[in-house]
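Hey,
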Amino acid sequence: MILTNYWWLILWPILMGPILALTLPKTEVSVFGITLERWHLVAVWILVLPYIFWCMNRSEFADTEVYRSMFLEVPLPASAFTNYLSGHTKDRGFFILIWLLKHWIGNNDQAFFLIIAVFQLFCVASFFRQYSKDFWLCFFMFVASTDYLSWMFNGMRQFIAVSIILISFRCLLNRHYFLMLLLILLAASIHGSALLVLPILLIIYGRAWNKKTILLLMTVIMMILFVHPLTDIIEELLRDTQYNDIVTNDIWQQDDGTNMLRVLFYSVPALLSLAGKSYIDEADSPLLNLCVNCSICTAAVYLLSAFSSGIYIGRIPVLTTLQGYIILPWLIDRMFTRTSAWLVRIVFISVYLIFFYYQMHIAWQLI
């Protein structure tokens, strides 16, 4: 089931979504004070299954071959693996994961990609099914925004960490801080960027658009205005770390930042939540408040990455992007009448389709 026509990425949810939504029953549930319509598990996995197999059978796409080489070169004998691990000073949890999987599946790299894809999409699909008012729309956004390709085909290691962060979201809502901290540390052993969730937690707790989120936006604006002094500060802070050449290396120097179209695109949840703040305040749901503040973090960091580094800074927002998707279906239904909400959805889906075409055809030249 090799993905040779990338149009299937977007055609599958469009063709199957309505069929699954109409044929399999949904359950109405209340989650932190808001009513959600939860999809049947069978429908969820029918929609998700092709994306798992496309991941398993991918080849020569972005970092795919790098990860394949990593998997194949990890030695199985414990003594050889100990020596191998001593040569890798960061993200050791990822190499330990590979080593454990190889004891189970041998050198089967397809099985490796399959297991990782199952875990990642299980976390994503479960998160959307549990907390979204419209599972299909959230999953459509995940695919049409090219997050699926960007992270499951390319930034696989970081997205394993992000998937673990999604699991910890339940702990965050229920204030099980110790378990949440353990999950964040586990995620950080896979990819060190997960530690950035700790300062993010200080910002996203509280009401939507609280003073901390406003301060974050103001700080980002100041950083943009003084981007060159900021670069000097970053270089000084990282001088004695494994990232000591991050500012001076060729990647940073040649990086012209995140495309402003992408910045605007990922800022939509935050902008819509600002327009619908009165509805969010009225609901006063911890779920909505956290997701709104996550969307603000996403927009703020993407804006910063547009004026600094899309490769380094532009990787951070994925820690909060998927949480922001939860807001859009709920706001569309609350802010508009039944008829106008459908029109807004059509416009919204059309915009995502245009972005998908732009990213896949113009930016990546895949279709």
